[in-house]
User: Fold this.
Amino acid sequence: MKKSFVGAARTAKRAYSPAVITEGGRTIWLAGHTGAVDDTGKSLAGDFDAQCWQTFHNIEKTLAEAGANLADLVTMTVFLIDARYTTRMTELRTEIFGKDFPASAAITVAGFARPEMMIEIQCVAVV
Amino acid sequence: MKKSFVGAARTAKRAYSPAVITEGGRTIWLAGHTGAVDDTGKSLAGDFDAQCWQTFHNIEKTLAEAGANLADLVTMTVFLIDARYTTRMTELRTEIFGKDFPASAAITVAGFARPEMMIEIQCVAVV
Amino acid sequence: MKKSFVGAARTAKRAYSPAVITEGGRTIWLAGHTGAVDDTGKSLAGDFDAQCWQTFHNIEKTLAEAGANLADLVTMTVFLIDARYTTRMTELRTEIFGKDFPASAAITVAGFARPEMMIEIQCVAVV
Amino acid sequence: MKKSFVGAARTAKRAYSPAVITEGGRTIWLAGHTGAVDDTGKSLAGDFDAQCWQTFHNIEKTLAEAGANLADLVTMTVFLIDARYTTRMTELRTEIFGKDFPASAAITVAGFARPEMMIEIQCVAVV
Amino acid sequence: MKKSFVGAARTAKRAYSPAVITEGGRTIWLAGHTGAVDDTGKSLAGDFDAQCWQTFHNIEKTLAEAGANLADLVTMTVFLIDARYTTRMTELRTEIFGKDFPASAAITVAGFARPEMMIEIQCVAVV
Amino acid sequence: MKKSFVGAARTAKRAYSPAVITEGGRTIWLAGHTGAVDDTGKSLAGDFDAQCWQTFHNIEKTLAEAGANLADLVTMTVFLIDARYTTRMTELRTEIFGKDFPASAAITVAGFARPEMMIEIQCVAVV
Assistant:
């Protein structure tokens, strides 16, 4: 599978690429992932940083079941409960990805399936 | 076309799969579908169940024009006017799909193109 | 790459196709694009028409870097700050695309990364 | 009790007064009133006109219990589920009040106590 | 100061009165009160029950400075971050007031001054 | 008319008082005021500072018609289109009032009567 990044230098400080090009390979269509509880089942209500990390961790676990990892993501839509979390999300994403960022949109929504959720990410990987 | 479901047992009770993998085939990129009027043009304003059924029915009709059906959906984003409809939507989706659920995110939004709309679903099928 | 439009006559007046089918080719996964400043850096705060045009212009520039253009878009999700902008967006999209419209969903959201943003579009092209 | 209207001609076409002045008398602090079911208990889900009429009718009934009527209202806050209902609400309010309009604010909110509710009005009367 | 409750039996199970009538006395116009931190400054982020109790506790402290208490409240507007907290708020309000409930509206909003806030209450007391 | 401020030192840096007490006098119930156009009719779309100033200016004009001024305000509810404008609003309010601040709540809403509106303030004055 061939993959390339478009205009990535322009938006690297926000931890995403304007576009990612793929050709062939397997496409992994991921459900919206959230992180309102940690791996032990403890609530992360009210802790945006923890929920954001947990969300990416949960995505990583699903990708692992598919024989893939976070570096294989090509695009994502990040749904946030408050617009002021956008910058913090990009900071955490910078730590998590480091480089070769997927495409991304970040949107503030009116709510999620459960009131304690603060972030949901739906994404696509190609391997 | 090859298709496989990832971690599906974990989330079956919410009628979606954490991820669906496809390779090759034709990709059908569907527009956001809604169901604010029934097949005869009668308004379904205020009736969430009816709008949810109609929305999946309208998706089915578009898929049929493309030589596909609901079982070919691999991912969807469900936009809802009120978070409290999320569980009802998953119940209806359980009836409609039965098994082999597509990936899905469910998001509560601030509004739609017309004020009587209560649900919009954008999805992708691969055949 | 083969591409076909499904049921396009039904929804042409809203400048989108119910579905677009692609097979093979390269997939360009675009980030959410916005248009809150023009090409010279001048703010377009409060001017929906200008932001909508600029957003499509910015998408066009990213596509050009990928060797593609607006006609290669197959689906988009349009996020709007107010539902009443939906019709105006479809009018502008009619002017921009003319025919062979991509699939599309149009959703009203609670906010964006910066408060002056009025529209964000995330899309996929296949070439 | 003395009551006077301030600048009422300026905003009469939107069926409110910029300010209402009261001195002395009894103040009736009304709860938020809604109209999601009619007097027989039938659901008015999805029917904005009916809910708006019913809401004012319910306010009228509460005022009657207090020995007052709609003409005694001095201010109200109208909460709406969709901004596009604002104009229709002012049309109905014009029919209901005719003249000597109370002060008013009209706000679009993210939701109400029950998902079928489309309007809630909180108001104050002075008699 | 004379105070009376209108139709209170009808709505007692939701812990509010349809209307409260006052005549004369001193009016205490309270600011919107919140409860995102407890009395020691510890964050209550993500804990709706704690924030709801703290909010009423903070209102009580302000009222005490004015020589009044919660029983003197005549109306309130309760702003909530998620509609599903409405019922829980009425349960807590039942415990706090017991009887002779003030008028009230409960509205779901898009956000507050700080993202960790889940409830804000603006109210009026007459003594 | 007697007026006193409760706990004002605690919240002065956010330009409001926790409570304001009034006794007797005339009560001026103001409608929700906005500031989407300036005194010459020019649109202030997208310019929060200008809309905020204009809104207080419009309130001042209505108060003048009632023989009052901004210093007579005792409480207000500030409705904002984006939570991130809350701090800026308090800065402007500090400049406008200087001291003896009214009570206030600041809420982020989903929308207003017209899409270009960014702020609406509903308030009460006692003289």
The first strand of chain F starts at residue 2 and ends at 6. Residues 4 and 21 of chain F are 5 Å apart (CA to CA). The first helix of chain F runs from residue 8 to 11.
